[in-house]
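Still learning. Any example?
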Amino acid sequence: MIIVLEKNISEEKKNYILKRIYDCGLTPHISVGIEKTIIGVVGDERILQGKPIDGIPGIEKIISILKPYKLVSRDFKKENTIINVKGNKIGDGNFAFIAGPCSVESREQIDSTAEFLFKQGLFFLRGGAFKPRTSPYSFQGLGKQGLDYLKEVSIKYNIGIVSEVMDTRDIEISYNSIDIFQVGARNMQNYSLLTELGKQDKPVLLKRGMSSTIKEWLMAAEYIMLKGNSNIILCERGIRTFEDYTRNTLDLSSVIAIKKMSHLPVLVDPSHGTGRKDMVLPMSLAAKVIGADGVIIEIHPEPEKALSDSQQSLNFEEFEKLIKKVSSLKCPD
């Protein structure tokens, strides 16, 4: 349920309402909007049948949320959530670019990529230190050494790092090297990992599972927010269908749906979404037109030598052209 508080409610009344919620064994989540302050109540609402709270002074109205996801819904928060990392924002109306190699392969590779992004005026670098691969014989990433390289370039170029964690044990190891924790498609329903990330004070980029519905995707985000971390970025990266011309089927309609259903920012990953470098630019343009908050794109100094995902990675010149074309695109209101 959602409890809408009266405008200009006193701290004393607000604290009393919160205490009553806690006393009922329920968990309150406060959202302060431009006009209203609301409290999302999580738990078995049947408890309130014997302990009504609708008559407490300071409450304007109580609204029942019928959706299975509550805290990530537009019902809970009307305003868009804006993610702020060292003054660089995602979800504030600007179109964000996150770019980097599929995996960190060497100090030289990641340094040259970070330097290129820095010269382009971009802030977010993505790079995998831990790489979940379909084949156990494929390159699995450099692990801790890769994190050290990411930390080095973060300090050197004052750039934000986006990198994947695959296990709850990775969080502590990665914490000082990563600015945004990425949850990959394979781990979207790793509820132990989601719950632990919900206890962190850094944003989480949550990719859609390869066979997940939009509702399942939002429910995964709910696991994170339920533990207190509301800094969540959703990322559409394509879903598995019968089509095999592309690596996945990039479901751009999900961006439009999410924007109506949730207050969380949404990015598009055209690299994994198609698996074809010739489609990355047109899909990036489409992502901007439909109202996505940005794209996450795989780039590499020498894609033909990449240890993973070479067929979908752009070189620096190709990515620079993409930035210019996407940035110059004027979208209709």
Remarks:
- Residues 165 and 182 are 6 Å apart (CA to CA).
